[in-house]
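Support request from a user on the community tier.

User writes: "When I paste my structure tokens into the form, the page sometimes reloads and wipes my input. The last time it worked, I copied everything first. Here is what I submitted, just in case something in the input itself triggers the reload:"
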């Protein structure tokens, strides 16, 4: 009896490895790391919003609607508990994605408005915030793409035989990713370039 126990103990790692256990572990850890970076970059962007709104407000007080939209979108983002467990809940993940998308859209509309204020565009503080926002948007794009790839690798592992048997026994399930509708948004960071030449007056 003792001999059988030791034999089982010795072959278990081999069996689990052959059934995708190690791959499930490594791909799951990669998702966690990628998701943490996504959250980090989104938080960085959210932290920039109050300063950005205040600077724009100083030059464009009449643009209350756009400024309010940005502030409200930022508030909705902050109202979502972006915990590590969120990536296991399709509905919660979708709400998170929609909130971030609303903030992206609101910021894009704000940047269009800024084009009408040359004094604002030339303000040193605003230009610094603009550079930070542009860099953050680029990092968000990279982080999201890494997350998408990590989820893709993990989901393929969970669905593939015989890995799917191990996944079922151990309680591993597929995880949500950013939707196809947002692929263009994912692959192209919002343009935040204020160095374009002004159109010639006719």
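"...and here is what came back when it finally went through:"
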């Amino acid at each position: 009896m003792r001999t059988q126990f030791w034999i089982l103990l010795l072959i278990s790692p081999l069996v689990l490895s052959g059934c995708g256990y190690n791959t499930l572990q490594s791909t799951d850890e990669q998702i966690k790391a990628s998701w943490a970076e996504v959250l980090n970059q989104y938080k960085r962007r959210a932290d920039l919003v109050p300063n950005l709104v205040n600077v724009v407000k100083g030059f464009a007080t009449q643009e209350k609607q756009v400024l309010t939209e940005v502030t409200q979108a930022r508030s909705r983002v902050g109202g979502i508990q972006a915990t590590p467990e969120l990536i296991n809940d399709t509905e919660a993940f979708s709400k998170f994605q929609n909130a971030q998308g609303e903030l992206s859209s609101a910021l894009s509309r704000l940047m269009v408005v800024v084009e009408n204020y040359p004094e604002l565009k030339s303000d040193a503080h605003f230009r610094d915030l603009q550079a930070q926002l542009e860099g953050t948007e680029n990092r968000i794009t990279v982080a999201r793409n890494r997350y998408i790839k990590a989820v893709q690798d993990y989901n393929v592992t969970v669905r593939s035989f015989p890995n799917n048997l191990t996944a079922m026994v151990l309680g591993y399930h597929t995880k949500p990713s950013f939707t196809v509708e947002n692929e263009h948004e994912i692959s192209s960071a919002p343009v935040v370039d204020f160095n374009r030449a002004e159109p010639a007056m006719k």
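Agent notes: The reload is a front-end session timeout and is unrelated to the input. Residues 21-59 form the longest helix (39 residues). The radius of gyration is 23 Å. Escalated to web team.
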